[in-house]
Specification:
By secondary structure, the protein is of the alpha/beta class. The chain is built from 15 helices and 18 strands. The strands form 5 sheets. An 8-stranded mixed β-sheet has the order 6-13-12-11-10-7-8-9, sandwiched between helices.
Amino acid sequence: MAASVRGGQLSRLLGQWHALPGRRRSPDYVALAGAIRGLLSDGRLALGMRLPAERELAESLGVSRTTVTAAYRSLRESGHLISRRGAGSFSTLPNGHRVATSGLWTPADDLDMIDLGVAASAAPVELVEAARAAADDLPCYLGSAGYHPTGLIELREAVADGYTARGVPTAADQILITSGTQQALDLVLRLNVPVGASVLVESPTYPNALAALAARRARISTHGVDAASGWDGEMLLGTIRQLRPRLVYLIPEFQNPTGHLMSAALREQLVAAAHTAGADLVVDESFVELPLDGAGVPPPVALFDRRSRVVSIGGMSKPYWGGLRIGWVRASAPLVQRLAALRVGVDMASPVIEQLVAVRLLRQAPAIVSARRAQLAVRRAALVRALREELPEWSFRVPTGGVMLWAELDGPISSALARAAEEVGVRLAPGPRFGLDGTLERFLRLPFSLPEADLEDAVRRIASVRHDLDRAARPSWRTPTVIA
């Protein structure tokens, strides 16, 4: 039986679905159809979902049934709805689109698109030589079956040494190698979050973390991260104590998407609050190696852990390359063994050749990461300069590290702007992607991981459609791609 959405539920998702103030008002059915497409493009309305009957939705929205009938007809014509007599109407995709691995979809033809939806850089030049050297290392492993559920010992030791250098003594048996940071999170959730368990996350936060939690059918609560000031420590700690969640997921280093860096004092208080509440802390350290202004990063949250409440996850996607699917979990040795046993039922083990490449790259980490930081600092400056020249009405805080900034727009237009930007060859990650409830329309995540010329060109294109947006009678719908 297909899942369905009730009229009241869809009404809440749609929110203020009429045309935005200041724009020439379109007919109600056009605005309603566009809003439903927006829910699909944001991933807040799933594919294959049975929509409410026309009469039910009309009553929930307080409009005529004729309006809903016309909106459904428009959705069928654009390929976003299919109707079967006696069964109902179901959300779908237009022809020429495909479902991406994140559960989002992307146009089949992505040529000449400046992609600002992915906050990751191209591979370092050292990768090719590391791959060649890894191929030379491979014969030593060919005599075995090749399954290493916890990861190659050389790589686990290298990752453990990295934590030890950051002030947290770590042994190799405290490290589990995974196929990327996303799998590290997924395995931890599979082990620690039963269906219906309470989980606390930041808002805004990493969209694929929300997707992983939704897959576990967790009860998600949020703590707001202010665009200007970051975490409100008193409120965050109070929420943990009152809610007593099963798990708390946080990104303390250059938070995705706001770019904030959590203080050492709050990190220590978090661990104490988690212990009091009986909650596990999952700390995503994807950006920890990317401070850009010379200042040090506070000690890892795990430094303050005395009762095995902290599970740290990280990987090589952001400082090295997203195509190298190497991540890890740092936890107590018994927990690592439990995760490895669970992992066998998922994908057995990470590829040996990729782990050997990772070992080679980590041996060159000081040079590679230093070059990456310098590169990102230059690109950050280019993006900031272009935004201040082309879109001075937008406000943002310049992050001290990471790969992105979180811009506050001059109106609740993030999703509409993302659709319009695709018309001029720029893919954006609108604010609502980073939350649960369809808010954050005043915000936009802008990574600075692309070359300076691409960033400057992208901002010029965004500015051109922003200035036309208020005058547009009916913005064309486009779909976003994977956000990382």
